[in-house]
Amino acid sequence: MASVAGRYQFKIVLLGEGCVGKTSLVLRYCQDKFNDKHLTTLQASYLTKKLNIDGKRVGLSIWDTAGQERFHALGPIYYRDSNGAILVYDITDEDSFQKVKNWVKELRKILGDDICLCIVGNKIDLERDRHVDGAEAEAYAKSVGAKHLLASAKLNKGVDELFLELAKAMVTAQDASASNGQSSGRRGASSRKRGVEIVDEQPAGQPKKGCC
Amino acid sequence: MESSFTACLSIAVRSVRESMIFDSENRHKEAFCQYLSNIIYICGVLKDEAWQRELKDCHCPETVKLFKLTSQCLERAQDILSTSQDNLDISNVPPQSITPTRKISQDQTTLLPPPVTPTQSPMPARQIHPSPPASPNFRKRVQYIDEARRGNTHLLSAYRARMERREKQITDSNVRRKTDVTSMNLSLFRKMAENIEVAKARQKSLERKKAERQQRLQEEADRRMGPSFLLTTHDQIRKEIYVKVLEFEQDSMWLVSLRDQLNSKPDDSTLIQHIINKVLGTREHPLTKCLYSYQVEIHTQLTSITEQARDILTHIAIMGKNSCQNEQQNETDESEISFGEELNEILESNSKTGETEGKLSTEQDLCIVPASEISADLLSEEKELEYKKILENIVKNVESSLEIVHSLFLLVYEEFSSAAGQDLCLATVEFTFFRPLWPLLLNLYRIVNYRKEERLVKIFAENISCTPKCLNVPDRLCLYEQISEGETPAPYQSVVDELQSLTKFGSPLEKLECIVRTNRFIVECVEDYYESKGKPRNSPETVIGCDDLLPILSYVIIRSQLPQLVSECNAMEDFISADYLMGEEGYSLTTFQTVLAYLESLQGEQEQLQEETEEQKHSENESSQDDSLPEQDLLQDEPIQQDPNSQE
């Protein structure tokens, strides 16, 4: 878990209603490279992935969350300390997009601008049944400082891209906060303090908004 | 002319012998006085003689011997006095007594050839090994003077035995016997004086060395941490302990050799673990002492609370008993036993705790009151807040203690500062630290979480016969066949068993591992099930997303019937560093907490929950479940969500 120099370790939460296919997205992303190899961890609910972005070693741990409303009130403990969030909606389901909006609000409320957001419209293979207006979604994402991407887990389209985009954004954000004098090893093994909750990094907000 | 000296000598020798007999019989006061009167007598004779004739005439072998006797008597008397004072303080002995004695004893060697020395004298053999034993059990260094004295006692007894034998052998020649006795007496004195002398010299050089070493270690500490005046008090304490550790290490060969090993293999994690375990297994090690002192401090705090809150604790114990008779009770018993042992070892003085625990368990047996009856007045709101504050303080205390001990380890062993080394170090320190404290700590958590646990007990009881289906586990993960076969255990039984083993572990990290295993077993369980049906282990049916995991876990937790999971999870969250909680461990714990919170929120709705079984219609769920949740659109995703992978 140590954040050694030149290595980045990020936590990503995966949000979205149960029907939008977030599990498929993340499984597609993590399984593809090791197609025949069986996943040994908690299957689709907790997955890890290693990336190399411009020579920087990036480790992602992806936390699936429950989309069901009865567990919703308990979500915030999942978000704690996360660097990024992937909010998935189904382009054929307007309601799932409204849910995404709720989550964005909640995440910003709890984590402030400290978290990089990526809104994903899944199931673009069902484009003909589209119920969420693409331009509207794009505009919304912009207004909340989030990236907006389209993907299809089924066709394996846009999956790698969305994780890569998010990872890049998180690297940029961490670098920015590090150069802003915030300790980059916030979660470093050396400073093993439990009380390190999210520190509101006001000055870091600006560049992050731009890149997310 | 010389006859007066000779006469004096024989009288003196006899008298000295008497005093030595007193001495060997531990009649210190008599021996002391006798020695002193010998001196007075000899001095008197010498003075009178010297007064009567020329001084140079006084110089003869007899006077030399008399002087030697005097000095020996003086020395012995001094020793008696200093030992009787308390534990002798050798450094107080005035140094001038050494010089004259030495001269005389050297003279003596020329005058008297060393007579038959008792061969069984242990002295030489002993002095060959002044270094401490190279075993982990460090023994306190034996003082050289003590050693010498013990050696002398041996000499004396050997001498006495010899004299007795002699008396039997020689019956006729009186003259020979007398001279023999005198010479033997004197050689004995000389030998003893020499022993003491050598020991004193050794002691002195040892002390000098010690002082030098202290100085060197201090410098070493300065080098590592900067001079004292620049440090905060906290760092100064750390520095003090550091110096102590360095000092301790000088006396313990095994530590030095371990350090050498570490130097050659700084990344060897088993070695690091071994070293930490060894250090913490050694009571006298300053680091261990430091750890113990914190442990004792926290333990004292905790016991006083346990005492106060005995009612609630008794009640909590009953709660567990009622809800789940067999396993639960066994677990509590076990933990009590281990608790007693561990702590009695650490706090010999604090015998109170054992009693408290004993009383507690007897009360458990005596008053079995239904959980719901007393609960209301047991814990007032203010009390609960108060306990919460206490808990917060203790948590802080524990954290800072662990941090200090951990940082001390890193200070003492620079090699541990790699990320892996640090983690290992912390894990080992925590393990040692928490094991004896955990039951008490958990008690406090359970007091604070009393209401929650009580609620859970109810919910557990009402849902004990629940199937996975009742808890909205998707059909494909209900593992139905297993139930219908009748004889086979209930679904996810292996997961329930694993979770129940959680109570056995005594440190947060071990418990966390158990939580992770529990989560993994769920996946395994599902895979085993589908494998037995001829499907590959990673088929779409076995995919478990968070949406599936939470209901399954709800089922498992209800089956486990462990209300204290709330407290255990709380404690884990408090004591396990955030770094650990980034990965799978953190995910597992978070999932557990989520499910526990969900189960708690079910209060008063269990009936509805069971209705779900019969109805099996998700539209019904909406109306039944929404009381506690603000959002209205409940579970509508459920029917569609059952196979998230189908779209691929």
How many DSSP helices of chain B?
A: 27
Query: Might you state the CATH topology name of chain A?
Result: Rossmann fold
CATH classification, class level of chain A: Alpha Beta
Structural class category of chain A: alpha/beta
DSSP strand content of chain A: 15-25%
Shape label of chain B: elongated
User: Helix fraction of chain A?
Assistant: 25-40%
Name given to the CATH homologous superfamily of chain A: P-loop containing nucleotide triphosphate hydrolases
- Calculate the terminal CA-CA distance of chain A, rounded to whole Å: 25 Å
**What's the mean pLDDT score of chain A?**
77
Question: Which overall shape of chain A is indicated by the principal axes computed on the Cα atoms?
Answer: globular
Poorly predicted segments of chain B:
87-141, 323-344, 348-375, 610-648
What structural class is derived from the secondary structure elements of chain B?
A: mainly alpha
Q: What is the CA-based Rg of chain B, rounded?
A: 39 Å
Q: Mean pLDDT score of chain B, rounded?
A: 71
Amount of helix of chain B: over 70%
Order of helices and strands of chain B: HHHHHHHHHHHHHHHHHHHHHHHHHHH
Please explain how this structure is put together.
- Chain A: Belongs to the small GTPase superfamily. Rab family.
- Chain A: One of its GO terms (biological process) is Rab protein signal transduction.
- Chain A: InterPro entries: P-loop_NTPase, Rab21, Small_GTP-bd, Small_GTPase.
- Chain A: Its main location: membrane.
- The complex is a heterodimer of chains A (212) and B (648).
- Chain A has one domain: P-loop containing nucleotide triphosphate hydrolases (Rossmann fold, 3-Layer(aba) Sandwich).
- In chain A, α5 packs antiparallel against α6.
- Helix content of chain A is 34%, strand content 22%.
- Chain A has 212 residues and is an alpha/beta fold.
- With 648 residues, chain B is mostly helical.
- Helices cover 73% and strands 0% of the residues of chain B.
- Chain B is built from 27 helices and no strands.
- In chain B, α23 runs antiparallel to α24.
- Chains A and B meet through β1, α1 and β3 of A and α16, α17, α21, α22 and α24 of B.
